[in-house]
Specification:
mainly alpha, 69% helix
């Protein structure tokens, strides 16, 4: 019952801190830059984050 639940959390927690930082860093940055690239980099991020 707790077999697949325990090993999954342990495996996700171990390889998460390493590949999570580098993968989550360039991922959101590239999306934010590509989205507000047309001409809305400051107002777009501020409006979405403020909302």
């Amino acid at each position: 019952m707790t077999g697949p639940a325990r090993p999954e959390e342990a495996q996700m927690t171990r390889p998460s801190p390493a590949p999570s930082i580098p993968m989550a860093s360039p991922a959101p940055m590239a999306r934010f830059r590509m989205a507000p690239a047309p001409g809305i980099t400051a107002p777009d991020v501020t409006t979405e984050a403020g909302r």
